[in-house]
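Class, carefully examine what follows:
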Amino acid sequence: MIDLAFGKTGGLLPAIAQDAATGEVLMLAYINRESWEKSLATGEVHYWSRSRQELWHKGGTSGHVQKIKAIYVDCDNDTVLFKVEQVGGAACHTGMKSCFYRRVEGQELVSEGAPVFDPRKVYGK
């Protein structure tokens, strides 16, 4: 088994999701040992939700799952890069393709692109 350095960071490691086809960074979240093992076992990314304090299958509610195409681990074994196929075209809960859709322009954040889906319809919020 791959020995990631979960103990070094209090049990959570940053995990970057990158579109395997385009190289676009889709999101950054966190994994714990359980979500890491579940991701390896299923071939779809699972994260640890810090706000809900629970295992989170990315796309479990929306259907926009992340199918793992490749996994990279940094030199310190404390950050993971998942290269994924983003099913449904959107990684962000706001409906945007990437969570990094806002660009800093002076003192403002400027949104780029258009939502792929309406989060109110998908999540009922």
The chain has a mean pLDDT of 95. Helices lie at 33-42, 119-123. Residues 33-42 form the longest helix (10 residues). The beta strands are 13-19, 25-31, 46-49, 54-57, 66-73, 80-86, 102-105, 108-111.
